[in-house]
Amino acid sequence: MKAFSYERASSPADAAARAAQIANARYIAGGTNLLDLMKLQIEAPSHLIDVNGIGLDRIEETAEGGLRIGALVRNTDLAADPRVRRDYPVLTRALVAGASGQLRNKATTAGNLLQRTRCVYFYDPNMPCNKRVPGSGCSALAEGAVSRQLAVIGTSDACIATHPSDMAVAMLVLDAVVETVLPSGETRVIPVADLHVLPGDTPHIETTLRPGELVTAVTLPPPIGGKQSYRKVRDRASYAFALVSVAAIIQPDGSGRIALGGVAPKPWRRDDADAALPKGATAVMERLLAGARPTEDNAFKLLLAERALAATLAEAKE
Predict the structure, then answer these.
(1) Partner of 247 for a Cys bridge, out of 38, 173, 235, 318, CB 3.0 to 4.6 A?
(2) Is pTM beyond 0.85 here?
(3) Which residues of the chain carry a pLDDT beneath 50?
(4) Residue 10, Cβ neighbours under 10 Å: how many?
């Protein structure tokens, strides 16, 4: 790990302003992803701005009937909140499906949304990776590469990494909105659907956040009811990242919403796929995964996703 300086921010606006003043500064909260990356020198910030203790650790009801979740609310606390358990069970189930209890005690709402891929080639500094070193190449696309965990849709010739968050998939199906503050002090809101970007020719750019922009909260709209579930398929039962995950909200008339995790560089959803829900899992996946470009190693994800959705729809009818 390389040397770095450190300070504690006094407010969200102060943190954002300081980030703009110091080259190569990074925010730190739970640190469950950033510190791992620093140990491997994949991230080498010159300065850390500690944003713990700036008043972003509360869950509050909004005037519209939704919930405003502070960016520093720990995953454990969010999953256990009685309002989340009652009105947004898909979110609780996604959170509990992610990581271990110890990690959930430290991981924050904003950090979970912004965590970086777990592609093994991204984590190996000895291997080319366009996300880590732009223009160096994608080892996951080389002959003989292991791509079992990686994306089947939304990829490019520069990157096939997946987004690892379970929570983000649930946030997407709930139409959540991210609140931020910019170094100028201005604030803005970003739908979760617009937060993450596809790799294209610039896989090192992963979100629409601007330099120094700090996530302050995530707002959930009023509850929409329905049967909500999060089904995660992974290689081991203890804890692991998803091969495929399905976040679903199914209404009594068969309509609803579906989002997938583990299949793309961002949480994956399409409105036309939601419209096909009354026709069943095959019809949904024909739209949701149209244009998929799997490797020989991960083509199984197409059928796995369909079967996971079929099981979810069958469960919703019980």
Answers:
(1) 173
(2) yes
(3) none
(4) 12
